[in-house]
Every structure is written in C-alpha cells, then in structure tokens.
Specification:
Layout: H1 14-26, H2 32-45, H3 49-54
Helix pairs in contact: 1-2
Length: about 70
C-alpha cells in the first residue's frame, strides 16, 4: 500500500462501477478502488490529456447504453 489514501465521494454510472469491478477481478487488484487508482496513475503519467479531455465521448448515447464486458468468445 503505497502512500496515504484519502476517502473521496463522487458519482458515476452503474456500468462504470461494473467496469471497475471487472478490472479489479480480471487483474486481481483486490477491489474497484485499486482499479480506479491504476487508471488515475496511468492518466497522470502516460496519457495524452488533450486526447482524454478534449474529445467528446458518450457511451451511454449509443445503442448499448454504457460499458459492457468484452466478448471473450471472439
């Protein structure tokens, strides 16, 4: 457990909670909090912020209505 952690409350859609739980399970991270910390660490160090924050994305506007786990049969 690196560094002190602070509790933060925010709201996300149910499908994104499922996405974090899926990532935590798939990569044996322990819980969805760790999955989110991994994503935030990636954004902080390796991601292109302009690509993330200037491109408009709305996965809930599409026919699927949000995130769904990848189809493992393909």
């Amino acid at each position: 457990m690196a560094g002190e952690k602070n509790g933060v409350e925010f709201q996300i859609q149910k499908d994104l909670v499922k996405m974090l739980e899926y990532a935590a399970d798939k990569y044996k991270l322990g819980d969805k909090d760790k999955a989110l910390r991994c994503i935030l660490d990636y954004i902080a160090t390796d991601a292109d912020w302009d690509e993330i924050f200037q491109k408009i994305r709305c996965i809930r506007c599409g026919p699927d209505g949000g995130w769904s786990p990848p189809n493992l049969e393909e």
